[in-house]
Design brief:
mainly alpha; elongated; 382 residues
Length: 382
């Protein structure tokens, strides 16, 4: 290190905070600190390393490097340090990483799977890196699914999560039947769904009318009431009529969930294709669920976004649907194709930006009012 550089380092010692208007330290000084950090780490420092070093009182803040060089990458180039793909991922690197995540999880991906993997640090790139090359995460997944043959020389598996069609559901049931040596039960489907290896029972019931019909459509023999006692359909309808007499109203799903000797709601759905259909056959009055229009769903999503100050997650929507403030998550997916599309239709991102602007303006107004008050107050004389 030259004497001039040593003098510059003494003059421009890193401060805990650089005030607005303070001159930037010479680039040579910044480069020297970056090289020292690289020597300590044994590799090129990442943005995270620069920030952590600055917190320890070593070197300068990331903001200073950004202001002096334009970006972290340019600072590394100036310091003649090697650049890794961590900093500058290209389109194919991101597509490969999406495919690897799909192979690791052994299932087609939704946008939520990638968000979860980023949060758990199981995905190499951030959402910001993905947004450089793609409009949305869903678009990136679709591109990765199409690019498999180009990237790996052959198609390995489905990467993109597709809406449940009759053929997809039948194939899934047949694959599980091969594995178990018999048709899967609705309970087994639920357990596999929790592990992310299968659709939930809902799409089977929605597409075929009931889970039993789905199993039969796949050319398999259904196993009814594998864990509990077998019920006769007429006996099941009589149980509903007796319960209605005892309660003085039509029984709901939650009323029969934990009553011993009464079939489980899933059993009614399996036999009759839905709990409401079972009530119809029993000659009981159906308590109809509220049906939401597309405009009402969009408005409800916007209200939830305002309430939480962020995009509502699945749990928020489920809780809101229980309070009758919003349609269920399944209804939203069926109506708009996916939750991502529903958020796009509702312009949630733009709404949140506007809300932030309004909050900032309100704070500024409050500060102005306070300053005016302080200025108008008489000065105390001692």
């Amino acid at each position: 290190m030259t004497a001039r550089l040593q003098n510059d380092k003494k003059k421009n010692r890193p401060k805990k905070k650089r005030n607005i208007g303070d001159p930037l330290p010479p680039k040579l000084v910044l480069i020297e600190y970056l090289r020292e950090l690289a020597k300590k780490l044994g590799r090129s420092p990442k943005v995270k390393d620069v920030r952590e070093a600055f917190q320890r009182g070593e070197g300068y803040s990331f903001a200073t490097y950004q202001e002096a060089f334009g970006s972290h990458l340019k600072a590394l180039e100036a310091a003649k340090l090697s650049l890794t793909r961590y900093f500058d991922p290209n389109r194919d690197d991101i597509l490969k990483e999406i495919c690897f995540l799909s192979f690791e999880l052994e299932k087609p991906l939704r946008a939520a799977d990638i968000m979860r993997a980023i949060g758990q640090k199981k995905f190499l790139y951030s959402t910001k890196a993905i947004s450089i090359h793609f409009k949305t995460i869903s678009e990136a997944i679709e591109a990765a699914d199409k690019a498999q043959e180009r990237l790996f020389g052959r198609r390995l598996q489905t990467v993109k999560f597709e809406g449940a069609t009759k053929e997809i559901l039948k194939d899934q049931l047949r694959a599980l039947a091969k594995e178990f040596g018999r048709a899967p039960t609705i309970t087994e489907i639920e357990e596999l769904c929790k592990k992310g290896k299968c659709y939930s029972p809902k799409p089977f019931i929605r597409v075929f009318g009931s889970f039993t019909k789905a199993v039969r459509a796949a050319g398999l023999k259904p196993i009814l009431n594998a864990k509990g006692p077998k019920f006769d359909p007429d006996e099941m309808l009589d149980i509903l009529r007796k319960l209605a007499k005892k309660m003085g109203r039509t029984p709901k799903v939650r009323d029969i969930e934990n009553i011993p000797g009464v079939p489980d709601p899933k059993t009614y759905i399996g036999y009759f294709g839905g709990f409401n259909k079972a009530l119809e056959k029993a000659g009981l009055k159906i308590t109809l669920k509220r049906s939401y229009t597309d405009e009402e769903i969009i408005q409800a999503l916007r209200e939830l976004a305002r309430k939480f100050g962020r995009r509502p997650n699945n749990r928020d929507i489920v809780e809101a649907s229980k309070r009758r403030e919003c349609a269920s998550d399944d209804t939203i997916r069926i109506r708009f194709g996916s939750m991502e599309r529903a958020f796009e239709r509702a312009n949630i991102e733009e709404l949140l930006k506007e809300e932030k602007k309004d909050e900032t303006n309100k704070k500024k107004e409050k500060k102005k009012i306070k300053l005016k008050k302080d200025f108008n107050e008489p000065f105390p004389f001692y």
